[in-house]
Each structure stands twice: as C-alpha cells, then as structure tokens.
Amino acid sequence: MTTFFISDIHISEQYPEIGEQLIDFLENQAQQSDALYILGDLFEYWLGDDDTTLEYKKIKSALRLFANKRTPTYFMHGNRDFLIGKTFANETGITILSDPSIIDLYGEKVLISHGDIFCTDDIEYQSSRKQTRDPNWQKMILEKSLKERKAFAYEARRKSLKHIQDANEILMDVNQTEINKTFKKYGLNQIIHGHTHKPAIHNSMINGELFKRIVLGDWYEQGSVLKWDQSGPELVTLNRAP
What we know:
The chain is of the alpha/beta class and 242 residues long. The chain has helices at residues 16-27, 54-68, 86-92, 123-132, 135-142, 146-166, 169-172, 176-186, and strands at residues 2-6, 35-38, 73-76, 95-97, 101-105, 108-113, 190-193, 200-206, 209-215, 223-229, 232-238.
C-alpha cells in the first residue's frame, strides 16, 4: 500500500539520462503502487500534444505501459508543461488534475499542487502565469505552427532565465503567509508540492496544531520521490547510474 509523488522531472533531449531514470522508476520502484502523482514540469517544455520529439514519445510509451498495469496515474500542470492536453492524456492513460487538488491519502486529507501558486512575492511571474493559464491565450498559441511555438518557447525561456538571475531567492520561494492561508482555506494540515526544487519536510505549529508541508525536489542530478504508505511520508533520492 504505497503512493508515489514526483515533480520537476524536466525531461528533454538535452538530458536523456533523466528520461532513462524515469522509465526505470516506472518499471521498478513504482510497480505495485496504489497510485502515482506527477505534480508538474514532467517536461522541460511542452509546446503542444502534436510535438513528435523522440524523447517525448519514449516517455509517453512508458507512461502508457505503466497505466496499462491498472496503476492510477495523475498529472498536474507545471510552469513548463501547461499546454499538455486531452490528447496527451488519452495517449498515456493519465488523469489531469486541477491545481490545487485535495486527495484522500490513507484516510488523511492532503492538498497537492505544483507549487508556483504559493510564490506570490514574485509578482512578475504570477502575472505571466495568469496569462499562460488563460484558455484563449493557449488556443492562440496552439494555432501557431510547431516551429513558431519553438521560437516562442526559446524566447520565453531566455526571459525566464534573466528573471531568475535578477530576482533574489526569497522572492522566488513560497510565501509562508500564502501557505498558512491555504491550510486555513481548505481546512487541512498537509500540503505536497514541487516547483522550488528544495526537497524537504517542513513541520510547523499553528495554534498548537501540527502542519506539514512536503516539498519535492527536481530530477536534474538525481530522482526525487515522495513515498507515502500507511506509516506516513518519506522523501527518497534515486541516485542516477553513472
């Protein structure tokens, strides 16, 4: 009885070893699990379900094989792959969830999110996020040719890197007040998210009650996995083969 959570895998042609590690994870560690949740940024970027990049096709096939073994597989959009749509879901067998979502985890109520919604100090990013999640904006982008979308993604990534360089670390991390508001709004005391690439389990006391925020890590150098069974959560690092 185990559920796995992963986030910020960032699969791309530039880092084929990440894709290989994910496939190994699906074929081995994740077998016999109750469910798998992918909390955004599965890909370094996603330009539309019509993208035929070979590396992406390999991952879609691996997800399809995994889902075919009757393991419920859930996906939540990240800031890199918000254009993943129904075609991708049908091809892989995943279920796309809204961000945030609340799940029942072995009798416990837990909120899951990619995590960027909590980075409210970064006003410039939040403005961009609002635009890219707009259905009309997405429709406009997807009507462009794949070549045009790739040019757009390149420019957007260039601007994003500059923004990251110019912004301070605190600005780009989660806002604790926003986290506390979320706990209160949904009436729960556990949150799982990614995005910040800072894996940790944060425990805090609010009015004498324990609240837990679990942050998933990225997969650039190794695999970061949250393993949750009836005994509770455990953050695991999957070291990549040399």
